Amino acid sequence: MSESGSETVARVGVAIPAAGFGRRMGGARKPLLELAGEPILVHALRPFLADGRVTIIAIAMASDEVSAPPEWLTGLDDRIVIVEGGETRGASVARAIEVLPDDVSVIAVHDAARPLVTRDVIARCIDLAHAGFGAVAGSPAVDTIKRVDGRAFVTGTPDRSTLWHAHTPQVFPADELRAAYASGVDTATDDAALVEAAGGRIRMVDDGGTNLKVTRPVDLVVAEAILSARGTPA
Q1: Does a cis peptide bond (omega within 30 degrees of 0) precede residue 158?
Q2: Which of 21, 95, 180, 203 is the residue whose CA sits 20 to 30 A from 66?
Q3: Phi then psi dihedrals of residue 47, to 5 deg
Q4: Domains and CATH numbers, the chain
Q5: CA gap 84, 96 in Å, rounded
Q6: Strand 38-39 vs strand 134-140: parallel, antiparallel, or unpaired?
């Protein structure tokens, strides 16, 4: 039963933006890099596929990958569909959302290069969205944060106790996210920012701080260590 007390079961569509190139990884296609013997994208998909409420996963990829998708992806699960991504992350998310059927009640957006998300975090985010809230996986800030100007001079120190790092998945009632993207704004790096601007209520979900995004080469080393310490799929 969800927080709202509803006994209906959520029908979840997932949008995965995976069309970008990692400048800080030397231009590599991060979702296709191997992590513990499997592509990063497989690690990112597996916990979503394990949730029976997920009915479809739309992955926005580069045009050459759409025309000739890797066999390990097309054979992974019949709930996966591949669409051509856009010039920005937001455009890729919008294209993935477009192919999700109208009967999904909840839409989750997840970074293709975030391979360590757990089933528990996904389930908690879906439960919140099914109850009518937005949900953003993340972790409370543990470092002091500095606000700076264009020349990196400090202009302020916000209260750390009110700050969180926003990760993914970011999960919303489907109609709220569709309406936010229908506004035509596709430059946001954070889907919740679009929903916030439309007046949506959003709650943070603590993901334990290990839900890292593979951005630099060192992140692969850290991710491998976390997977090894877990021993079994989370």
Answers
A1: no
A2: 180
A3: -70, -25
A4: 12-230 (3.90.550.10)
A5: 8
A6: unpaired
**Dihedral pair phi/psi, residue 155, rounded to 5°:** -115, -5
Amino acid at the residue 137: A
> Terminus-to-terminus CA distance in the chain, angstroms?
22
The CA distance from 216 to 214, in Å, is 6
Q: What span, in angstroms and rounded, lies between the C-alpha atoms of 215 and 36?
A: 17
Q: What is the pTM of this model?
A: 0.92
Is there a contact between 168 and 111 (Cβ–Cβ < 8 Å)?
yes
Q: Confidence band (pLDDT; 50, 70, 90) for 233?
A: low
> For the segment 111-128, what is each residue's pLDDT rounded down to a tens digit?
999 999 999 999 999 999
To which residue do tokens 């700050």 refer? Answer: 163
Query: Distance of alpha carbon 84 from its chain centroid, rounded?
Result: 18
Tokens of 37: 């013997």
The CA distance from 226 to 102, in Å, is 37
